[in-house]
Amino acid sequence: MDRNKRITKPKYEIIKEALLERIRTGQFSSDAVFCTEKMLSEQYEVSRITAKRAIEDLEQQGILYRKRGVGSFVSQKIPPVSSSASETDSKSKMVSLLLPFATTQGNISETIGSLSAALAEKGYFLSIHITGSSSPKERATLELLRSQNIAGLVYYPKRDNIHLEQLNDFLFANRPVVIIDKQTDCPYLNNVVCDNYDGGRQLTRHLLEQGHRNIAFFTTAPLSETSSVRDRFGGFLHEIKAAGIMPDSRQLITWPHALSTEDALSTEITPFQQQLLTLRQNGITALLAENDQVAELIFLACRTIGLRIPEDLCLCGFDDTSLSRSLEITSIHQDFESIGREASRILLSTLENPAAEPEKIVLPVTLVPRASSLRMIKTES
């Protein structure tokens, strides 16, 4: 099936399922006002309309009822799980997903959809927790989840620091953990990642085949802290050296902070825009960005300062997001749906058999060439 035609579960459905499980496990009192639209929109980083849809669906099912001018309440017709039920029973229906960014970023919604669907088939619900770029908040959220009745955890770390001490607490409580996106060498943790190293190789090989010799790798993520980007750079270096090009410091640009649209679109030259002009002046003809989000900002900055893509500078990203497709940016397609399916498979099998051996899954990636890396017309000097 064409991946663009695949259907993922709507966000309001994901929120509704998470709320329903919390209701059934007695986490909401029938005499207290239920979560407001504002609270839900902030927690799940969705629009108020999406949050409202989730609440309205629960009201239509009779699970919530509304008091005019006060708010929504849990119907007393919905019995919570008995406090005398075993801890295992209350754990067994909720799996938590911990993310470092909004559910609308990149293609993560595909992972959420496939993960939620696979869990739902076995009677489980998915709750989603956003930590942003804060490592302390990430750690605090892990500690909070450990104190709650969840069956297992799918964890997308912001950086390589996966807070192993907190994850050990999950394992000691027989709650399986699956790390996604970041590769971990911890032998007892499950891991599902895409082949970032091969993705870096494919992109670099593609640029070399277009005639480029002066190629640079651009990242905002410290390589020492981000295994996914480190692997992509490793694939880049492999192909550069295989082509007989000796690497030098000009080929790695590590930007010291996160980039914004203001950095790219300002009519007054920003340091980011100046860096791109300097790269071109120094003979760089192609850039491999750490991901599509950075590639998109490079694309916009080049358009603002008059650098033509691909005539003046060829550009590649990583992730194959919808925006990269609309901007015709060459990218690497990662199978985010398979990440969700594999993570759910591992969790469910470990719940059935706690003695199961940890799994390390590396999913293949695919080059998607587009107009941003058009074959060079002139030979580099």
Spatial ordering of strands, largest sheet = 4-3-5-6-7-13
CATH superfamily of the largest domain: Response regulator
Q: Can you count the helices?
A: 14
Number of domains: 2
Distance between the termini: 45 Å
Work out the radius of gyration: 23 Å
Q: Low-confidence runs (pLDDT<50, min 5 residues)?
A: 1-7, 79-91, 377-381
> Major sheet: size, sense and barrel closure?
6 strands, parallel
**Total strand segments:** 14
What's the helical proportion of residues?
A: 40-55%
CATH architecture of the largest domain: 3-Layer(aba) Sandwich
- Give the mean pLDDT: 87
Class by alpha and beta content:
alpha/beta
| Strand proportion | 15-25%
In CATH, the topology of the largest domain is named Rossmann fold
InterPro entries: LacI/GalR-like_sensor, Peripla_BP_I, Tscrpt_reg_HTH_GntR, WH-like_DNA-bd_sf, WH_DNA-bd_sf
Protein name: Arabinose metabolism transcriptional repressor
Domain HTH gntR-type: 9-77
GO molecular function: DNA-binding transcription factor activity; transcription cis-regulatory region binding
Structural features, described:
- This is Arabinose metabolism transcriptional repressor.
- One of its GO terms (molecular function) is DNA-binding transcription factor activity.
- Keywords: DNA-binding, Transcription, Transcription regulation.
- By secondary structure, this protein is an alpha/beta fold.
- It has 2 domains: 3-194 and 337-363, Rossmann fold; 196-333 and 367-373, Rossmann fold (3-Layer(aba) Sandwich).
- The protein is 41% helix and 15% strand.
- The chain has helices at residues 11-24, 37-44, 48-60, 87-91, 108-121, 135-146, 164-172, 196-209, 227-242, 261-265, 271-281, 292-305, 322-326, 336-352; strands at 64-67, 71-74, 94-99, 125-130, 152-155, 177-180, 190-194, 215-219, 252-254, 286-289, 314-316, 331-333, 360-363, 366-368.
- The chain has a 6-stranded parallel sheet with strand order 4-3-5-6-7-13, with helices on both faces. It has a 4-stranded parallel sheet with strand order 9-8-10-11.
- A hairpin with a 3-residue loop joins β1 (64-67) and β2 (71-74).
- α8 runs parallel beside α9 (227-242) and α11 (271-281) packs across α12 (292-305).
- The two termini are 45 Å apart.
- Mean pLDDT is 87; it is low at 1-7, 79-91 and 377-381.
